[in-house]
Amino acid sequence: MDLEKSREQRSGEGCLVVAVRMPVRIVALVLVVPVRMVWDALVVVGRFLGDTVFRPLGRALAWVGRAVFVWPFVALWRWVLVPLGAALRWLGAVLLVVPAGWLYRAVLTPLGHALSWLGRMLLVVPAVWLYRWLLTPVGHALAWCGRGLCALASLLVAGIATALYWTVRVLVVWPASVVWRWVLAPVGRVLAVVAREVGAALGHAWRVAGYVSLAVGGALAAFFRWTVVEPARRVYRSVLTPVGHVVRDRVLRPVMEAARSVGRVTRDALHSVRVTVRQVRQDVRRALLGDPKTPGEQGDQSVKRTVVPSDGQDDRILLTKR
Fold this sequence. Notes:
Strand order of the largest sheet: 1-2
Radius of gyration: 64 Å
Helix content: over 70%
Number of strands: 2
């Protein structure tokens, strides 16, 4: 079945594909077969050398390394360094730790207690007595004096502030209020009335000027309309519009129709040329590469198995596509 399929597929391919495929396969076969044979020979030789030479040699080297390096260091550590370390630890404990502990318990501890009692009697007790019977009364006296001085200073500041307040009020505030009430306020009211009247007059004049400007503008607009716009509109309506219609109907419309016809003919010619070129390209491709089959056609094809009786003992199996 596979042979029949491959034969049918090869029969559907182009002659160019078959002509290129065979030389390429032959060259690849000629180049790859020697390389593969050399690779297989190297693999066999490598396995033989590994089993007969490299693996025993590695085991011998590992045993020699353990005998030369590992076992001497293990013996040195176990029978020399460990006992020597234990002896040094015992000597250190006898010569250093025990005397140091006795010195701390018998000498340094009593001496530290004695120094602590001397320091308390010579420094702490006198300092407490001095703070309690001398510094505390002096501090209370100084605090009382400070409170009295603060009260006196506050009284002095309050008196000075009061005197300055009444002085400023009598010399500055009262005269300023009198001047404001009896001089500046009446003058300000008069000036405000004058400014208000001047503003009202200016506003009235501005509105009157607006009316005058509107009237003058209307007159100028009417003059321009009757002298320029109306004649131009009449000329456009009675002269230019009929002329434009004549030009559109007699000149522009035939020209547009002719251009549209030429464009239609050109598009039809180009379409015919494209169709012809596509057909020629498909014919050339079919001649060189064979009849292409679309995926839908290939998917819809089904294989039918037909048994054809022959004169011999075996039957031939033919594959037909539906």
